[in-house]
Design goal:
Elements (H helix, E strand, L loop, with lengths): L2 H13 L3 E6 L16 H13 L2 E7 L19 H7 L2 H8 L2 E2 L11 E4 L13 H12 L3 E5 L23 E2 L4 H6 L10 H7 L3 E2 L9 E4 L2 E4 L5 H12 L4
Parallel strand pairs: 1-2, 1-4, 2-3, 4-5, 5-9, 6-7
Antiparallel strand pairs: 8-9
Helix pairs in contact: 2-3, 2-8
Length: 247
Amino acid sequence: MSTKAVHESEISKAAVVKGQVLMVATSCDKFSDGTPTGLWISELADPFYTFKSQGYDVTIASPKGGAVPIDPTSQGQEAMTPEAHRFVGDAEASQQLKSSVPLSSVKQASSYDCIYLPGGHGPVFDLAEDQTLARLLSEAFGAGKVVAAVCHGPAGLLSAKDPKSGKALVAGRKVTSFTTEEEKAVGKDGKVPYLLDARLAEAGAHFTRGPAWGVHVETDGGLVTGQNPASAAAVAEAALRVMAGSS
């Protein structure tokens, strides 16, 4: 291919990019008792392809950078969605997960149209207390960008502040996440340091829940949250509607 053709191809690719999404995954690979945990793969893969299909570039970051740990349970046959299978077989996408960007290197929150936090149990340990993430989420929300999270991903919202009021970002807003009912069903209620739905309510959120394991999404202005793995694609779709100016 000629230099001119390569240049024209690069311009063509750039022209179809609608915006930028930052996905922030956990770096935590175990519970305090040593039981493996990490990212729930479908909660990243489903939105990854939803955003990509609408012309958004996706960057994957994590607190430590490098390889993101994957919860082995999420790779079981019953847990794997078609998009999760696609992601695992997608060399370019998988490489992003193996070489995630260190969160400390993300300087401009406003350069992303959406910051999305997938779950897995890891976020209740690291994302919940990550001050770099808290700053980025606050800056993004203040700049009118979308902040989205699913399942245990909303743990990452706990330290973020509303830049206007100084209160917790979730305070006074409708929010959902993995519920106590679902936590008990998977037998992890004794392993997590807190029950996320209760912690969000304590932070002032108007917590809502749908039926266990069903799709449930809350959109409150620029804040979009989903209850469980089944809600991941719907969270991305809701975020896209907000970015398009409709909800």
